[in-house]
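re: that chain from earlier
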Amino acid sequence: LDDITIVDKSLLKRAVGAMAIGNAMEWFDFGVYSYIAVTLGKVFFPSANPGAQLIATFGTFAAAFLVRPLGGMVFGPLGDRIGRKRVLAMTMIMMAIGTFCIGLIPTYGSIGIFAPILLLVARLVQGFSTGGEYGGAATFIAEFATDKKRGFMGSFLEFGTLVGYVLGAGCVAVLTATMSEQSLLSWGWRIPFLIAGPMGLIGLYIRLKLEETPAFQREADKRESEAHNAPKEQFLDMLVKQWKPMLQCVGLVLIFNVTDYMALSYLPSYLSATLKFNETHGLFIVLIVMVLMMPMTLGAGHLSDKVGRKPVMLFGCVGLLLLSIPALNLIRMGTMLPIFGGMLILGVLLSCFTGAMPSALPALFPTKIRYGALAIGFNVSVSLFGGTTPLVTAWLVSSTGNLMMPAYYLMGASVIGIVSVLALHETARQPLKGSPP
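^ sequence. v structure.
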């Protein structure tokens, strides 16, 4: 019995709920930017060419991803030293401040070039804080969850992400549907960003009320009784000895985030800016798909506990390889029902990753370096491949004139995903590395 971790059910539910709610607030802040990208392009990047505006706006969107590995390198190892809870509180408040500040920036018409510069600074603050968010939240839930239900419990993290995205998309959709373009451009676009301030304070309060995870507490107690490793030695240990799981992490996160940012961030703008589809209608379609993804994500997490993480993720990868072209052909038809059908196909396949990844990724690393290793591996992959997806795809479509580029991009990512999943050891229903059952 001394080797078994016993977790109180109410404590587990509170931990999962706090991470899901906190993640929802973080991704509301982060997601709003991509949904209102067309309007932001007009406010901060005046140009006669809508395509150039969109590329400039997504360029600023991608810039936030360049600092995410730095955030991971700072917050990840810090979370392994001082605890998951404190660092997750820091990331929450930093994200809220960065988003709130975007809502206060004067327009290009008021202060000229300083407007996009200030927007870039605020996005960098967002990106830095997000560097410590996902790895920490996934680690927190994984370390609290029981071995039998880690997939299901972990899927609530992405359930929270979808709630945040839905709130962000819903807020933007309501604004674009109820306000004139003049009002939206002059002041309406600020509303979703200013909401971030009070939301961040609520999330901070919820996270500060949590207890530390049993796995971290056990590791901290062990460190106190033994000779304490210097942080630098732990960091080197992570980089040198964990190279294989780090590569697997990068590959898994690549397929996960390329699909995520393609389906939920780029395609809404692709519909309005490239296909000239009604912006409000496009947002509502994405909104409905994300609402449908919520139960599918929980279902995929539950299924990964039963049949394993690998079969669920492999289904998503193979599905993208086979169905990306048919899905985009449906979207390109340009009417409501086919667009919804194409987006729903991508949503179903994305649910395979949102359901299984939050439990599969933390299981790659041992407790003493889990937060740091996951934060760095996750954010290096996101910054190189995930966050650049809207920018690169917009550029490819603009430069080649080939409207099928999003499908080809997804298919290329799916091949890397298949290789990464096949190289993975199955971790369903097993204790985490360095943790007792």
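Residues 258 and 389 are 6 Å apart (CA to CA).
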